[in-house]
Amino acid sequence: MTTFVDLTHHLSPETLARGTNPLKDVLRIALENPQLVTLANGDPHPSRFPIRRVDFEVASVSPDDPVSGWASLGDSAPSQVLSTSQDDDLRRLLKSSLQYGHGAGLKDALRVVDDINKTYHNAPNHVATMTLGNADAITKCLRMLGSSGDHFLADEFTFLPMPLAGEAHGIKWVPVTIDAGGIIPDELERILANWNSGRGRRPHVLYITPSGQNPTGSTLDAERRTKIYDIAQRYDLIILEDDPYFFLQYDLSQSGTEMFKPPAPSFLSMDVDGRVIRIDSSLPLSFSKIMAPGLRLGWITSSPSFRDHLIKFIDLSTQNPAGFAQVLVVALLGPHGGWQLAGFDRWVRSLCADYQRRRDFFAELFEREVASTGLASAYVPAAGMFFWIRVHLEKHPRFGVDAETGSSDGLRVARTNTMELMKELFEVCLSCGLVICPSSIFALRADPRYDDVPSSVDDRSNFVRATFAGSEEAIAAGVPLLGKALKQFFA
């Protein structure tokens, strides 16, 4: 068994000061030793629960393309009913799920997640902890690792609610320049190698979305991932791998019978030190991007030492995730006659094909209605749900560059009127009946006193984010509206 590097020096003072919940310690003894008679915990007796069974009707994965059939046939689509009354194990699991639980989650659900990790990632020595979904998992990790005044690293355009959650605890963010291929490893190393100790401790955490990054749609190839992990080892970084679009990767050259295999390994698969903490929220049902975000269930995969601290945090805050969602995952993917992993994989590959069709439809329409104007362009994303559209503001009659700005007392400031023009474009889109996300709402701004970036991120915010995850009707209506709005804006 691999012995991970001791990385406990990354833990925050809050984490180190947090003790265990003594009641949970007693509960764990009772759960792990069912032969014992317990009068210790205040568990309601299960015979008083007004719930005897729960049935879940889910899509059948027997057709060749189950997602298309499920979406197009409506109530007549083939389905499968999973019942907690179908065997003794599920009956027992339902009773357990209705009681107070363990901070890591139900053992049966953890076994399912472990099977997923072993199937899709090479991570035999990492362990899982169930969470209330993506945001809950990230917030807990940020608090576990971050102290007030710490600096963490992230893509310069990123899904801003996650950094904002860290800022509430005093974490400061350092943006890393990205391009169509994601974070640029040389830029990451430059920041770390030239860190000014006057700012405080050098960044020790990198938050990254490697596949279908939100908002840019970029995906790191295997070479960049290898370089980034090497940098993490040399500069002692923890990698927070937030990968909700892992199962939404496209243009894979696989036969219909092969298991889903992404083109590049996850950071978790590369991790020999225990320095990767992976966040997943994309199992089949709420595991958010693959089926339904409303169940609020995900998991963190980490080294055992980090998991121990996560469990303490859970036991003293949110408690373990809702039992029904965990039961559904076990009934669906465990050895109880549901989809199991083979069916899950069939659903994932069908879902990829469905989203790829939407992506290609968007790309074709974009080329005809928008790119043909010469006013905007976009690359076709290899994963995720988003197109990152570059608006060619340099062609706008009122675009301006102020030669007198760009630097003030050594501080890097905006030199162009990009932000002003992009605000105008947003209003023009609204007047045309279209809502689209301006890049400014995803921008992490550098500290102009220290960060030696080539230009202000405001000058590089001439992008908008558009999704192809909605209906084809929305795409068919929205893309021409974008073309119309751009022509009106540039006129």
Features of the shown structure:
491 residues; 4-stranded antiparallel β-sheet; globular
Can you walk me through this structure?
With 491 residues, this protein is α/β, with parallel strands linked by helices. Helices cover 36% and strands 14% of the residues. The protein is built from 15 helices and 17 strands. It has a 7-stranded mixed sheet, sandwiched between helices. The chain has a 4-stranded antiparallel sheet with strand order 12-13-17-16, with helices on one face. A two-stranded antiparallel ribbon has the order 1-2. Helix 6 (134-145) packs parallel to helix 7 (161-167). The longest helix is centred in the last third of the chain and has 30 residues, at 340-369. The protein is globular.
